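Let us work through a complete example step by step.
Step 1: write down the sequence.
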Amino acid sequence: MGNASVLVVDDNKIMRDMLRGILESEGYFVTSCEDGPSALKLAGEKHFEIVLTDFQMPGMNGDEVVKLLRQLYPDIIIVGFSLANKKRVFLEAGANQFISKEQLLPDLMPMIANYNI
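Step 2: predict the structure and record it as tokens.
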């Protein structure tokens, strides 16, 4: 069970709420927002150990969020997710991991557990 702070970034409220429920049930402290600019603002106000970000969002895609977060907070764990295969794009932007949305639910908690946070 974790106690790390997690930021969930996704323009889909259902996805944000679902991830919040899963993570909070495992003891994580979750903040969520719907777009990249909001994520950057929140990251400047609060320390997060983990950021989970979708790829396709209005205004700023997830890879742009990853690039900026990586520059500002080099030690943060960043996980990108998408329906499309954006693994290469996310990893090149500086994400630690990529998970396909189809595998997000079964793979997320084991992946986070590997970081021992």
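Step 3: interpret the result. The first helix runs from residue 13 to 25.
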